[in-house]
Amino acid sequence: MKRILHTTSILLFILALLFASPHAVLADEGDGGHQLEMEVNGYHVTLASQNDWVKGENTIVVTLTDSMGMPVRNTEVELLIAPKQDEHAVAETDSHGAEQQHDSMPGMDMGAPAEEIADSISMRESDEHGMYMVETHLEASGEHEVHVMFHANGEMLQADFVVEIPGINSKTVVLWSFVMINVALVTSAGIMKKQPITVKGGK
Amino acid sequence: MAAELKPQNKSIFAGGNLLQIKSINRLMRSKWFPGIIQWPTLLVFMVIMFQLLLGPESAHDNLGTALTWVLWWPLIPIIFLFLGRFWCAICPFATINDLVQKWVGNNRPVPKFLKKYGIWIIDALFIFITWSDHVFGVVENPFGSGILMLTLTTGVIASGSFFERRTFCRHICFLGGLSGNYARTGMLALRGTPEICATCTVASCYKGTEKAPGCPLFEFPKTMTSNANCVICADCIKNCPNDSIQLTVRPPTKELWFIRKPKMEEAFLSAVIMGIVFVQNVTMLEVWTSMLKWLEQAVGTTNYAITFSITFAIAIIIPVALLGITSWIAGKFNKASLVENFARFGYAIIALDVAGHIAHNLFHLLAEGKSIFYTALALFGQELHSASPALVNMETIQILQYGLIVLGFVGSLYTAYRIAKNNQPDGKVWGTFVPYAALIVILTVMNVYLFMLPMAMRM
User: Fold this and answer.
1) Which of A171, A186, A192 lies closest to B143 in CB terms?
2) Could you give the ipTM of this predicted complex?
3) Is the pTM of this model over 0.80?
4) Which of A114, B77, B289, B417 is most buried, by CB atoms within 10 Å?
């Protein structure tokens, strides 16, 4: 029975390691490739990347339909993409300048240029009615806020989405560091165990 | 021979052996004990780790945070009070240590410096971890809590890989140091029967047998006078061929009345814990913000690490200094040195430490207890955003807190009296006791005042 317990514990340990892998982190958090949807003042807005969301080049697709399900054509659509700030940084600051956008970005690569964060991107209407596209380069991984702004019936409307851009984040690096240290400790102990210990003064 | 010297059958309420009760005896001798509690604890620990490291980033929504800081941390001093250091027998870190040791353990002897300075290292680690919590936000940040757990896991893996038994638990674990001190107030005691142990030549309790390993914390029941390093794992009960081991119930704090070899580092830790309880309370008070602003102006910086470090140092120095001054005053009456009095009477504060610790954490347990249920429900997609996390109202919590402080006060006061009585000739008992009684009154008043002010939540 003790052997069963030990085997179970080994399996659980392996499971824990699997859960702790970066792949698991991304699978859990990622929205890459999925279509996000939202209703704004009766307008239906969808947001997607043509392929999976990636750090680097993305073709972003927005579709707009009205309350009757008819495509919204010939309107001006703009995107504003910014790495998501954590609540602490937002609470401490009260404006939306580029300086604070740099301030705190948990779990993602630091150093996305402020210009990229602040600029809005104009989208072009595709051949399909109500569908707007743009190619853009995302510098950082992690959670991003994507604001879709469009004109309808003379007013400016905005749909806010949060998108996870997969990539190696700082949490993953920390977790893997611990895994590596512990594996190194256990491995070196295993190697040293095999070597006979010489007793001082022994014959 | 040994059979003739069986422990006497006294009532368990009169200090009789709990192993007289068949069910307890069977449980303790069972090969499933303590594994039957140890393995589920490890499973829960894995869930906690998963939640802390990969679960919701907000402490408010994280089951790992709720289970660790709202349930486990408040319960742990209560466990120490009733069951001594039993938690350490089922602690998941200890289980990991044992597993690693079984697979790859080199079983080298404990390094000499750890034996010599172990408690000072524990003291330093305890201070450092509490400081880190405030400066880096360990408790309110699930990932930070996860990193603390991972650091401890790495510590036990290193210890289990290279050193014998539970070196980490005995000489390094900060919680082990705290539990060692608190377990002295505990109501459960494990000892060998002196008459039987005197005839023993095999020392199976220490060395181990095929039934169970030797004492994981390097204790030898034959000479044990304290429960500070006994985790009630029952290995010695299984191993003893003469049935010498006794498990008894004793009045809380009793062990503190008869410390044979008081240690400066343990007395220092008890004063430090008092300071840490102060700091934990002060930083959760609404008045803390204005105190911090005043301090920022006084030192000319808004750097929280600096301002908090100053507050932290002051809070720790206050009880240490008060104990030092009291020991100096008492020395005028009993002619003992300051260090001697400090080491001897530092133990008297432990009862108030435990009471303060339980009272502080009782707030989190009772005012935020339902958050454990809510965060667990959230795992299954059920959200209860506006529901109150409180188990009871604030008035009830405060009454319980004051009640605990009063019990701690009585425990500390009586302990100081007994220490004075056991160590001083008749004429000097009151001269020694009165300064310490005054100190305990001051510390109690400080505690009561802090518990009167409103506190912040953890979740």
Assistant:
1) A171
2) 0.86
3) no
4) B77
